[in-house]
Specification:
- This protein is mainly alpha-helical and 89 residues long.
- It has a domain of 42 residues.
- It is 83% helix and 0% strand.
- It has 2 helices and no strands.
- The longest helix is centred in the C-terminal third of the chain and has 43 residues.
- It is rod-shaped and about 65 Å long.
Length: 89
């Protein structure tokens, strides 16, 4: 037998977990920024890394945060709707 649908509590927990990851990723970006700015390092390798970090790396992490935010909200909203349809408080 194939199941179609979701367990509202599990779906809600997934949404909450995805939303918590936003804080984790934001903290990673803040930590790397702080350590990078406090590190004595000069030369072309540093310049390349700083350019990559401030460009593609942080952009990718920002997009990941955005995706987690959208998916997290979607999961919790669907869980709420399932509870409503099922008549479960």
């Amino acid at each position: 037998m194939t199941m179609y649908g979701a367990n509202p509590e599990q779906l809600n927990n997934l949404g909450l977990s995805l939303n918590r990851q936003i804080e984790t990723i934001t903290q990673v970006m803040s930590t790397v920024d702080g350590v990078l700015n406090a590190t004595t390092w000069q030369g072309p390798a540093r310049e390349r890394f700083v350019e990559d970090w401030n460009g593609s790396f942080k952009m990718a992490l920002g997009k990941l945060n955005d995706a987690f935010g959208v998916a997290g909200k979607d999961c919790t909203a669907r869980a709420d709707e399932l509870r409503r349809v099922m008549g479960v408080g």
